[in-house]
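Journal club side-thread
Mid-discussion, someone asked how the predicted structure for our own chain would compare to the paper's figures. Pasting it here so we can look after the session.
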Amino acid sequence: MPFKPVENPKCPKCDKSVYAAEERVAGGYKYHKSCFKCGMCGKMLDSTNCSEHEKELYCRNCHARKYGPKGYGFGGGAGCLSMDSGAHLGDDDPHIMVSRAPLLPKAIAKAPEGEGCPRCGGYVYAAEQMLARGRAFHKTCFKCGDCNKGLDSTSVSEGPDKEIYCKVCYGKRFGPKGYGYGQGGGTLQSDCYAHLDQAPKTTVIDTSVIKAPQGQGCPRCGGVVFAAEEVLAKGRPWHRKCFKCKDCHKTLDSIIACDGPDRDVYCKTCYGKKWGPHGYGFACGSGFLQTDGLTEDEISATRPFYNPDTTSIKAPPGQGCPRCGGMVFAAEQQLAKGTMWHKKCFNCAECHRPLDSVLACDGPDKEIHCKACYSKLFGPKGFGFGHAPTLVCADGAYAPAIQNPNPTSGPKAAPGQGCSRCGYAVYAAEQMISRGRIWHKRCFSCADCNRSLDSTNLNDAPNGEIYCRGCYGKNFGPKGVGFGMGAGTLTMA
């Protein structure tokens, strides 16, 4: 059986085979990559700007010029009327048939009465329906009943005559009329029957005339309070319109309402004038004393009495405040040395400075002090401790001599297992390691100057000892001109 090669599709532009590696698809046809360009201007195309017509490719501009609409406003400028028939573009092809039949509207199937579009009566399908007043309109029928302006859900207004309008036409038909309502500044119109119809009236019912049983209605008017207009204050329901200040009749809300002791409500200003503090400095200016005709006994009688001094309430011995012996309550307690103090008693025993958990120091005399007083009373004394030129010896005793911390007794460790400096055993809590050898932390110091060392300034010497950097340089570092001996000195040591 003879071999037959696979037939590849032909490029419509050059009529040659198109292979998969170079194909471009448009209009169901496959083109070479080099042939995928506009047939008029030669512009290279891609999937975003390609238009295909009769196996020919065009860019969008050339396709619009050759096959798009022509006439006034289509690419000819605002003041130009183009009568170009497109003959120079080659659209006089005798094989192209142009239909001259008039465009007639499609017939719409009529729906049963009350089920179709309210405007045309036809069936309304889900893809084109627009809803208003619970009824479905065609998208093309969803327009103003007066000016035929197309509407949407933001501009539609439903009239009382079961018709839809734009907002302007709705305002003209059913909106308020008179001076200032769309008729100009100098016009007064009182015709509410301009279009032989009238906006629906709203009935306002005064619920305050419906009296409630004694003690159950609005405290201001005594009427029944329904849930839609209820405002609560002091556990009692009020009408929204009755919820006003008793003195200035200012409308109140939950933020500015103040419940007075007379079981009425006030704004903050009137409450302060009537029930707030009176006298020098209370909203009357400096130098003015106001009592509003009230005596001191009358002012005191209207306020509840309380004794803020809790130190007068004595606690059992050993359980109260160490300073005053009074009962310490949770709201004012301060803790020090496991005992509770009053907040106002929690101050320095010497200078009476108020303290907190940061400044307080517990002294051996079972008192609390600030840091300055604590250091004066119980801190170290002598040269440099608070009195630079003074040497103080508090009790005449000599200062104890500094003891050598290195061990001098006890058994030593096995050779190579103990401290490299003293030879005694080294425990894990105090060991320091250098070159595989262990040291006591107290022995881990420079062999010359005894300076304490760590991993940052340690230098292991060839003699098995450890040094700081300065001593290591003196003992084992380079010597000569510039190495610690001055610029003009040459040492051959």
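Post-session note: The longest helix spans residues 60-67.
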